[in-house]
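The data are set out underneath:

___
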Amino acid sequence: MTLAHDDRGPQHGRPVLLVHGHPFDRSMWRPQAERLAGQGYRVITPDLRGYGASPTTDVKTGLDVFAQDLVDLADELRLGRFVLGGLSMGGQIVMQLVADHPGRAEALLLADTFPGLDTPAARQARLDTADRVTTEGMARYAEELLPKMISPETRRTRPDVEAHVRRMMRDAPKEGAAAALRGRAERPDYTAGLAKIDVPTLVVVGSEDEFTPVADARLIHELIPGSTLAVIEGAGHLPNLERETEFDEALSTFLNSSGATP
């Protein structure tokens, strides 16, 4: 399938493919897309299958399916190797893509994500939530998630970010969100594969992230040889929106130092 996507910046620029998390859409990466495109990068931000403007008929979407969709999009856009970044579920899709399609990514961004399996209780909670949102929609689920998605400080000081995050979650198609929850509950453990990653990698996490705390990011950093860790103070699970200036500076510095320049 062809994913709905934005393709910003010069066509000859170094390609950067950014993968959103659950239950969001490609507008999650708008600050980074605008800044990097202005610096000469070619920035591609897709809506994953079942999210935003990308349709799905899936009842369950595995992370391998998401990864294949991204490779297919890269092929359609005639991208050979590219910088690949993802946040939360997007980060897990990045780890899946690296495992399934070696050689495609020339540098990685892993933001607010974790490589391991869910506990049995957490796995069941994903399956139960999938059934729930299929029945009742996304509105109540979004309101329950919001306080954990962004930090209390962000909610106090950035009503624009809170409104954006709420809108993305409430507007996420319930069928796509449910399919992803079911697929994610069956994902493999990516931990052992991290030591095999041999491209420059930036690991980012918000200091107040409740879903994937700093300890999870430190583990990824320790396992990926030569990786860089950036902790964004005052941010929760979405530091790229909550503290976009600090996040963008860390990402730009990484891209410049890793050789992935436009």
About this structure: Residues 240 and 247 are 5 Å apart (CA to CA). The first helix runs from residue 30 to 38. The chain has a mean pLDDT of 97.
